[in-house]
Amino acid sequence: MMRVKSGAMALIVVIVFVAGIGGSMAFNLWKTTSDKEPAKYREGALAGKANPADIRGSYALSDIVAAFDVPLADLARAFGAEKEKDPAAFQVKSLEGRFPVDASGKEIGTDSVRLFVALYRGLPITAAANTGLPAAAAEILLAKAPLDAAGIADVKARTAGAVAGAAATAAPATAASAPAAKEPAAGSGTATKTEPTADRTIKGSTTFQNILDWGAAKQDIEKVLGGPMGAASTVVKDFATAKGIEFSTVKTALQALVDAKK
Q1: For the segment 150-170, what is each residue's pLDDT rounded down to a tens digit?
Q2: Given this model, what pLDDT does residue 130 score?
Q3: Which of 251, 166, 246, 152 is nearest to 205 (CA)?
């Protein structure tokens, strides 16, 4: 058996390592930058353009800047990330739980970022009826976004802290969003607050008991969560935050369980 000296072996290892990287780069398998790229519109005048509805909680602000050309300064100020050590690295899911649900039920999370980006760039999107916007985000949109009168009214109605019950007004597809889709945001684990069960829409204050009362089976809820759901009195959003789960990831799936029982 031929023996290889230690020095020669070290050289061989280095050569193989470098060759491996070179081969990976040649076949576009070696990536040193983020490959987060949102889905694109498939048809119409916007076909081929990035769709803000596909922005996810794992996206950093730098990913959004790259995909939608929204200035980092505006994006960071809109969602209170301008004082972060590295605003560009701030992840969208970090918003979940940062802003409290206001008196009218407006929630600020991943869907808020999708809405902000869409309005800023004049792109169509459908946001949940209770998707809110921070005051700073609304201020930027009112100053810079291509909004018509209906779009302006929608932004004002969605601004966190605005008069409770203000109706969100849907604007044309290229200027504002129409409330409809039940999309996401994130939550801790021991709250016992419950809400009336007449409205079967999952919100930031919805408990597991509410979802059970609306007809969803415990085992189906736990399939969505990927494990035990905890006490029935626990607020779902708080549970998600405590488990490190993005509320927006499970909210839509849980809502589908509820809607299937109507």
Answers
A1: 999 999 999 987 543 333 333
A2: 87
A3: 251
Q: Give the span between the Cα atoms of 109 and 134, in whole angstroms.
A: 10
CA 184 to chain centre: 6
The pLDDT > 90 percentage for the chain reads: 30
Top-confidence residue, 252 or 33: 252
Q: At what angle do helices 110-121 and 61-68 cross, to 10 degrees?
A: 30
Q: Is the dihedral of CA 229, 231, 232, 233 positive or negative?
A: negative
Say which DSSP state 40 is in: B
Find out whether 258 and 211 touch, Cβ atoms under 8 Å.
yes
Smallest CA-to-CA distance from 179 within 120, 89, 121, 105 is with: 105
The reported pLDDT for the residue numbered 3 is 58
Per the confidence metrics, is the pTM higher than 0.90?
no
Q: For residue 177, which of 151, 139, 144, 209 has the smallest C-alpha distance? A: 151
The answer, yes or no, to whether residue 114 has pLDDT greater than 80, is: yes
Reduced to 3 states (helix: H, G, I; strand: E, B; else coil), residue 177 is strand
Question: What does the alpha-carbon distance between residue 148 and residue 69 come to, in Å, rounded to a whole number?
Answer: 22
Residue 80's pLDDT is what? 92
What distance lies between CA 169 and its chain's CA centroid?
A: 22
CA distances from 255 to 49, 206, 262 (A): 29, 11, 11
